[in-house]
Amino acid sequence: MPQDDAEAVRWYRLAADQGIASAQYTLGLMYANGEGVPQDDAEAVRWWRLAADQGVAEAQYNLGVRYATGRGVPQDDAEAVRWYRLAADQGFASAQYNLGLKYDTGEGVPQDDAEAVRWYRLAADQGHASAQYSLGVMYATGRGVPQDDAEAVRWYRLAADQGFASAQTPPAKACHRMTPRRCAGIGWRPSRGTLALCPTSGPCTLRDAASYKTTCRRICGGTSRRLDKPVNNGRFRLTAETPLQVS
Fold first, then answer.
1. Residues 6+ apart with CB under 8 A from 152
2. What are residue 217's DSSP bridge partners?
3. How far apart are the C-alpha atoms of 150 and 180, rounded to whole Å?
4. How far apart are CA 246 and CA 232, in angstroms?
5. CA–CA separation, 92 vs 41, rounded Å?
6. Is residue 135 over pLDDT 80?
7. N or C: fewer beta carbons within 10 Å in the chain?
8. In sequence order, what are the residues at sequence separation of 6 or more whose Cβ sits closer than 8 angstroms to the Cβ of residue 206?
9. Phi and psi of 5, rounded to 5°?
């Protein structure tokens, strides 16, 4: 049959009105995306709340994002944390990551590096690239865990292997501080630059401390390119996940 969002909404609503949690969640997505109905953040939140109250982790997570961003509800970090925690306690990786981020930044909860690490690790162990990168940052800077360059690079590499861009040019001097043998043992090697982190193959990243520009040079090819984004060696603030957009 031909694809028809409006007809899909009609049937989802019939099921949602009978309390079917998955239909309530999906109807919320339709309102959030403006598919088959006019886009309406408040209606999306209303249906997600009904599903979330029945324990649907995806709906709980999406409510957390909406409270964090103030779309369809008044912005409220504490309420965002409450919904993230409900989803995170069910093992939902993106909620675990966002909860870690809240502890990292102290939004909605007292700032707590150890709790940030705990939630980042739970998400990272499920393959969540942003959490793997964040865990690398915590090890590189010694926040919430003993400072450990090898662990930092290990988590950066896991994130980089999934295409996570920031992990491919890590904002830390982890490999440079390590002995060449130890660095090579985990698949990286120090470069000749002062602030450097180089994989054994692929791009070599050198940071120019004066200009805060990053130059990437391919080890074997000799080509280079200029990146506009500065490398931040201070406190790392990552962007929270956005609501799920699939049923």
1. 136, 137, 139, 140, 170, 172, 174
2. 204, 224
3. 12
4. 33
5. 23
6. yes
7. N
8. 191, 193, 195, 196, 214, 215, 216, 217
9. -65, -40
Give the residue carrying structure tokens 């870690």.
100
- Give tens-digit pLDDT for 74-122: 999 999 999 999 999 999 999 999 999 999 999 999 999 999 999 999 9
Which residues are 189's β-sheet partners?
Answer: 198
Region of residue 187 (phi > 0: left; psi between -120 and 50: alpha; otherwise: beta): left
Instruction: Name every residue whose Cβ is closer than 8 Å to that of residue 225 and which is 6 or more positions away in sequence.
Output: 215, 216
Determine the pLDDT at residue 49.
98
Q: Which residue has tokens 């499920």?
A: 126
Q: Are 136 and 148 in contact (CB under 8 A)?
A: no
Helices (H) and strands (E) in the chain, counts: 12, 5
Q: In angstroms, rounded to a whole number, what is the distance separating the alpha carbons of residues 69 and 57?
A: 18
Q: How far apart are CA 69 and CA 71, in angstroms?
A: 6
* HSE-up of residue 183 (Cα within 13 Å, Cβ side): 17
Closest CA to 28 of 4, 81, 3, 53: 53
User: d(Cα 66, Cα 43) in Å, to the nearest integer?
Assistant: 12
196-199, strands of its sheet edge to edge: 188-189, 196-199, 203-208, 213-218, 224-227
**Local structure of residue 63 (DSSP, 8 states):** H
Predicted TM-score (pTM) of this structure: 0.73
Per-residue pLDDT reduced to its tens digit, 202-225: 443 333 222 222 222 222 222 322
Contact 184, 200 (CB under 8 A): yes
**Whole-angstrom distance, CA of residue 103 vs CA of residue 116:** 5
Q: Is residue 176 predicted with pLDDT exceeding 70?
A: no
